[in-house]
Amino acid sequence: MAAAEDQAPLALNYVPEVVLKKRKTNEDWAIKRKLQQEERVKRRKSDKFAIKKPEQFVREFRDKEVDFIRMKSRVKRKRSAALTLESNKPLFVIRIGGKNDMHPKSQKLLYSLRLRKIFNGVFVEANERVMDILQKVEPFVTYGYPDMKSVKDLIYKKGVVKVGKERFPLTNNNVVEEQLGKYNIISLEDMVNEIARVGQHFKDVSSFLCPFKLNNPEKALHGKKRRFEQGGDSGNRGDMINELLRKMN
Predict the structure, then answer these.
(1) In this structure, are residues 127 and 90 in contact, taking their beta carbons and an 8 Å threshold?
(2) Which of 82, 95, 63, 66 is nearest to 221 (CA)?
């Protein structure tokens, strides 16, 4: 009994003060982050269910009908020389317009190009079907032929892919080899070359890439629906799309 009483008490685990401070900082940051996210969700909900005035409904309906009438006139318009197909070059299309003044048919066409949000961009092949769609939704998009540097910068800086239901940023070659290895595309560089040269598996690579989320270019877009060649923002920019991409990437 006495021997048991003489045993020294167990030493407490020592945690350095630096570690304790770091834990406290991390906990504070996690709480702050959670509150920010909750506030963001609350703000989105309040924006979504904002009450509209009757005249706003009337104005939006009128704008959508005007868009539909103009779309039909654009379809009848002869395609300009600026829209000549260049099948050996990829097209990069950026959505620059919202949806309040957009007819549902225009929205459906944009969705067919996977352009669901403003400042989303996608690589597409320049074929007759795509050019017809671009002519119909011209006020809401701008597009052109990106060079090798633009293609590489987009894929390396903003490339995101979807595997199953999960999205992964393109930070290494593993996911590329797993999903595109059957096409002998095993690296980011292979993807860049396939897109830039409109290779045999262009469609597989472009659909593997999620739409690019681009930055809002300050002072590069002026909110004008006129065509680019007429001093506006929309339509075909040709090789000038590269200048815009430098500001949005």
Answers:
(1) no
(2) 95
